[in-house]
Amino acid sequence: MLALLALVAVASAAPQFFSGYQYPVYPYQYPLYQYPVQYPAYPQARYPGAPTTGSVDTRGLFTFSGFQTARANLVATTTAPVYTVTGNVVFNQDPITSLDGSASTYEAYLTGAGAKANEKYQLGVATSCAAVPVNLGTQITSPLFLINGFYVRGTSTVFNVDGTNAKTSVKGQYLVVTNEAATGVRTVVGCSNILV
């Protein structure tokens, strides 16, 4: 049996000569004159009429209605109100997350000038950047040392992507990041684009 497996491996690795396909010919000795350069005739795998798709993160091999995602970017602003925290947020809802498939997990990456080391932040979802946000979980203290920002991950039983089971949908809402300074006053330091 092993001999048959070795024979199959050797036979599949052997060069296959198809019609119209030639391997380049190289001289075995130092040439006395310049040979013309020969290149292999590799078939080009081009399909000029093929449609182009969006970015890689929007494509998938399989899509199911039970697996839903809402995402947005946090953008810094220079005009009032000034937001200094940048990054992104992704809400995922799938049957694996909870037993009834209605809870959602979220992951936010916070970076920028407003993401400082060893400070308290609160994530919330609001209808606009100026509205009072509904908190996502408890306050988060950023790591003691920050190089490029930090991730915040959690599960929400109040919000989900599609609004099923009497939960609020995050689509069409905004992620608001507040910072509680040493004075105890919460200020909005980041706000996302609309979640889609």
Question: How does this model look, in words?
Answer:
There is one protein chain. This protein is mainly beta and 196 residues long. Helices cover 6% and strands 30% of the residues. The protein has a domain at 67-191. The chain has one helix at residues 2-13, and strands at residues 68-74, 86-93, 104-111, 120-126, 134-135, 140-141, 150-156, 159-160, 168-169, 174-180, 186-191. The strands form three sheets. Strands 4, 5, 6, 10 and 11 form a five-stranded antiparallel β-sheet that branches. The protein has a four-stranded antiparallel β-sheet with strand order 1-2-3-7, with no helix packed on it. Residues 49-56 have low confidence and may be disordered.
SSE layout:
Elements: H1 2-13, E1 68-74, E2 86-93, E3 104-111, E4 120-126, E5 134-135, E6 140-141, E7 150-156, E8 159-160, E9 168-169, E10 174-180, E11 186-191
Parallel strand pairs: 8-9
Antiparallel strand pairs: 1-2, 2-3, 3-7, 4-5, 4-6, 4-10, 10-11
Task: Briefly say what this structure is.
This protein is mainly beta. The chain has 1 helix and 11 strands, in the order αβββββββββββ.
Distance N to C terminus: 56 Å
- What is the general shape? elongated
Report the average pLDDT across residues: 78
Helix content estimate? under 10%
Structural class: mainly beta
What fraction strand? Answer: 25-35%
Task: Provide the descriptors you would attach to this structure in a database record.
mainly beta; four-stranded antiparallel beta sheet; 196 residues
